[in-house]
Amino acid sequence: MSDYRATGEQPVTTELPTPRRALTIGAHPDDAEFGAGGTLAKWAGNGCEVTMLVVTDGSKGTWDPDLDPRDLVAVRHREQRAAADILGASDVVHLDFRDGELEYSMALREELAGWIRRTRPDVVFSHDPWRRYMLHPDHRATGWGAIDGVVAARDHLFFANQLTDGLTHHRPDWILLWAADEPDHHEDISQTVEAKIGALLCHSSQGTTTMDGAQQDETAREQFAAKIRERAAAAGAASGLDLAESFKRIQP
What we know:
alpha/beta, eight-stranded mixed beta sheet, globular
């Protein structure tokens, strides 16, 4: 295993030791499952305490004009809890910012720094905000908020009001960014890809929008599952693994 350095060409690495605690920071319900579901299931199975934080309420995640956004929020909360249970996550946190309208702000940075200090993860997962041509504004804002939240959480003079509330500063060992522009780290998910697929299929409200109609019937579900396995095989090919998830690995 090679160490990350901030400059120069980075080696491809695999298999971090299972951390004691991990925190995912995703813009929407299902983002962490797509990006890191297999790794989360693997680590949770090895005793890692996983917290899944979802920044927005998911209220725009439908193409059905007759579905009330308030009803969709409740559905997506339930789906996220079910998916977390399959992955073995210990806790789910919903910040419920309005879906599709998330803006990067100092308030978002402070909120995420507070949750990093509260959950004290060894590894933080999130979106890669440097990814070229990332269309979804919530993904970009969440990625920047997570990166800047880690920087703020590690130093006691950032948001010092949080420290008077009983929190202390905290520095994670690693940040792993999914859907990375330049991935340089891979985690083997050969034993947990089915848990990843099962967690994703919990998000049945997203079947039409993000999962190729997987909610319709068994054939559609298997086609979606095959696509996830194919993506994992492609990620693994870059590092000699059968099935993998790929990340940008940063030491904060």
